[in-house]
Amino acid sequence: MAQSKRETERKYAAPAAGVTSWLPDLTGVKPVVSLADRGVQELDAVYYDTADLRLTRGSASLRRRTGGTDAGWHLKLPLPGDSREEIQTPPDSEDVPGELRDLPLSRTRGAPLRPVMRLRSTRMLRQLLGAEGDVLAELSVDAVRADSLLDGGGHTMWTELEVELADGGDPALLDRIEKVLRKNGVGRSRSPSKVSRALAETAAAPEQAPGAGAGVSPGSAGAHVLAYVDRWVGTLVDLDPAVRRDTPDAVHRMRTTARRLRGCLRSYRSVLDREVTDPIREDLRWLAGQLGAERDHEVLRERLTSGVRELPGELILGPVTARLQIWDAAHRADGRQRVLDTLASPRYLELLERLRALADTPPLRAKAAGKPGKVLVKALLKEYGRLAERMDRALAMPPGTERDAAIHYARKAAKGLRYAAEAAGPALGEPAARLRRRAKAVQQVSGAQHDGVVARDALRHLAISAHAAGEPGFTWGVLHGREGAAAETRERELPEVWALAREAAGDKALRG
User: What is the mean pLDDT of residues 328-353?
Assistant: First the structure.
């Protein structure tokens, strides 16, 4: 069974192998009061990667290590700042465990894993202790020998210092320790990990992709669009392991990321060739739809559960909570399996390949070199026009199912405008930011109205099931009525938030 933990550490370049006399006294770094020598450990790790080193290029690593107190298979995935998530399984198997092979699939994209580097380290370990003898951090000096397992690779040696926070430690402690180290001539390591340094020094470093903005002038319309695409492609890759492990909110965030990318590719077809991006947009639409079953049920479950919880006891007749739990269990299992099947599908892996290629070698059009004030504004106004047409039509309709559908249709256009303004924000500043905020408000109000429509339909089916089982339908009817009243309130709010969005779109500062 895999175990996960968050590790927060910093690496520093040590002056000489096997020498510790240069280490400054850290007992004056509050709240450290003493250091405890924990002896020497002999560590032996074999690192695995694809032939073209996709894990390393994606700031991840996979190893099987023996020796020390945490021998086993370790998969490390990047987190913001100095932190990483480490997922560990026992070292029993000589082959990569299935779970650790699947979790980094968004980086490997299905390419086989093989041994690429062996690192043997002699580690001198010390613990930094507080006044009560509690461990605040660990300080280790590693004398490392790296032997490449790739064709034509060599070997290298170095010494480095690591400072790792204890679980729940204060990140500010790392800053205070680093201040002391710098004063004593100890600087940060230039490599983010041992394996990346080893690959670089044994002539087996991964080739760097051109990166966002390659091929266009800095500050151009294309550079801004590509920066947005690169950001959200990276987010999608990072979210994949969390979705596989059913981390809270991960499905929702991946679905939103897919929609952001899809919206950007549609809005900025003048910058990126649609012959390349249209198939990607279609696959992103498919991905968001596959994720939608679990996410939509999650939202609906929370809404209905909250509605029951808020009712006075005298309005709850029959086994309402039990029926809601039965309904939830039946739908949740189906949605979860659909998500896992999607992430295991060839279509999803092909989408990841296309997204990586899109970010690395973008299909630029001539307008990519244009000024943001012209190219991006034109795209924004086109998205606004689509929203205006749909919203005006919806608001002119009488209440009923057709109006509900028209509002939902307009809501999709509001999301498109919001994401287009989000991408243009760094170039266009506050006018684009204001338009984004007001498009988001339109999306939220129309979305709340649509959620009420969906909830009423679910409540109707729950009432039918209750009636068929001989249970009272009264409570379901009360909830249905409350959802109807809430939806009417949102509809009354919609013209006001829409007027504010119109105002933002007409801003002279935006239109130049």
Answer: 91
Per-residue exposure over 230-250, b if at least 16 CB sit within 10 Å of its own CB, e if not:
bbbbbbbbbbbbbbbeeeeeb
Give CA–CA dist 382/393, Å, rounded.
17
- Lowest average pLDDT, out of 9-18, 105-114, 360-369, 381-390, goes to 9-18
Name 28's Cβ contacts closer than 8 Å, sequence gap at least 6. 180
Q: In what helix (H) or strand (E) does residue 459 lie, and over which residues does it extend?
A: helix 430-468
With beta carbons less than 8 A apart as the criterion, state whether 343 and 308 touch.
no
List Cβ neighbours of 416 (8 Å cut-off, separation of 6 or more).
Answer: 263, 266, 267, 383, 386, 387
The token pair at 428 is 């266009």
Element (H, E) at 72: strand 72-78
Task: Write the burial class of residue 172 (CB in 10 Å: 0-12 exposed, 13-18 middle, 19+ buried).
Answer: exposed
- Residue in this structure with the two tokens 């087996």, named with its chain if needed: 204
Task: In whole angstroms, give the CA distance from residue 202 to residue 147.
Answer: 8
- What is the distance between the alpha carbons of residues 52 and 206, in angstroms, rounded to a whole number? 7
Dist. CA 72–CA 90, nearest whole Å: 5
Contact 13, 186 (CB under 8 A): yes
Q: Look at the block and give the residue holding tokens 């969390």.
A: 242
Residue 35's Cβ-count burial label (10 Å; 0-12, 13-18, 19+) is: middle
- What is the average pLDDT across 115-119? 96
According to DSSP, the β-strands at 83-89 and 3-13 are antiparallel
**Nearest-CA neighbor of 306 among 319, 324, 294?**
324
Quick one: how many helices (H) and strands (E) in the chain? 15, 8
- Answer whether 298's CB lies under 8 Å from 253's CB: no
pLDDT per residue as tens digits for the range 50-101: 999 999 999 999 999 999 888 999 999 999 888 999 999 998 888 999 989 9
* Residue 216 near residue 222 (C-beta atoms within 8 A): yes
407: closest CA among 26, 24, 399, 216? Answer: 399
* Interval 356-409: pLDDT, tens: 999 889 999 999 999 999 999 999 999 999 999 999 999 999 999 999 999 999
Structure tokens at 216: 């266009």
Residues 244/343, Cβ–Cβ less than 8 Å:
yes
Buried-exposed string 460-498: b where 16+ CB fall within 10 A, e elsewhere: eebbeebeeeebebebbebbbebbeebbeebbebbeebb
CB 90 within 8 A of CB 33: no
> Residue 311 has what DSSP assignment?
S
Strand partners, 34: 129
Q: State the Cα–Cα distance between residues 4 and 181, nearest whole angstrom.
A: 30
Under the phi-then-psi rule, with left for phi > 0, alpha for psi from -120 to 50, and beta for the rest, what region is 191? beta
Rg (CA), the chain: 28
